[in-house]
DNA sequence: CAGGGTGCTACGGAATTCGTAGCAACTCGC
DNA sequence: GCGAGTTGCTACGAATTCCGTAGCACCCTG
């Protein structure tokens, strides 16, 4: 199974290690963006996260969570479950304009 | 092969048809974000786009381009090649903060 | 002990993606 | 007309990724 993309190292589709390429590799994997999105309201347990993501397989969820933890975007808090780190919240904030845009996209497209 | 995600219809991983879910499905497919990114500087031909994306297979490139055209984000201009539509440029603009963020992410993560 | 929660793994099959080869159409120079 | 070059795009078998179900080990409460 493909390893977690890391800045400075080659990723799927690019050998430069440029941060944007690493990010595109990470976010281009199925469920990754969705998981970050579902954590927007606060921590969720592994199983709650599964349900929020329409019951994706635990295999993939665990793989994605490993990648997101390796990337410093998500952390496992024993008391509350999985949550966005400050870095992950920054990513979510940068992503919010896309959410607002998608509403207009739906009306026009 | 999975059909292009459309707002208002069920997509992979969500039956609600909410625009954000449709967008997450679309962007969560491999190479989709990369293709939009590589078109940031202007139109590219099919083959130039392949090279820009580190030689991804023409099968997948064509599939992604169909999806992006169905979504109204990319158009084929016979004279110049594939280019972002105004809608696609809006998406790219909303995505730019993530690029800037990825630079800091690389330093911290 | 029973019953419920937690994170997580195994495994076989389905879906997606890849890599290579090549087609049909068009344009250019000759 | 005839190549040589471009264009967008397809076929097809193999590799990779993802899915669905079942279930393990652990902890806590009753």
From TrEMBL, chains A, B:
It comes from Pyxidicoccus fallax. Gene3D superfamilies: Winged helix-like DNA-binding domain superfamily/Winged helix DNA-binding domain. The keyword Transcription applies. PROSITE patterns: HTH_HXLR (PS51118). This is Helix-turn-helix transcriptional regulator. Residues 18-109 form the HTH hxlR-type domain. One of its GO terms (molecular function) is DNA binding. Keywords: DNA-binding, Transcription, Transcription regulation. Pfam families: HxlR. PANTHER family: HTH-TYPE TRANSCRIPTIONAL REGULATOR YODB (PTHR33204:SF37), TRANSCRIPTIONAL REGULATOR, MARR FAMILY (PTHR33204).
């Amino acid at each position: 199974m493909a390893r977690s993309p890391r800045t400075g190292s080659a990723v799927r589709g690019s050998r430069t290690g440029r941060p944007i390429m690493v990010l595109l590799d990470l976010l281009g994997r199925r469920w990754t963006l969705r998981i970050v999105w579902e954590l927007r309201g606060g921590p969720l347990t592994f199983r709650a996260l599964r349900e929020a993501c329409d019951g994706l397989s635990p295999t993939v969820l665990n793989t994605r969570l490993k990648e997101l933890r390796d990337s410093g975007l998500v952390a496992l808090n024993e008391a509350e479950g999985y949550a966005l780190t400050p870095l992950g919240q920054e990513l979510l904030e940068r992503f919010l304009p896309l959410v607002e845009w998608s509403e207009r996209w739906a009306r026009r497209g």
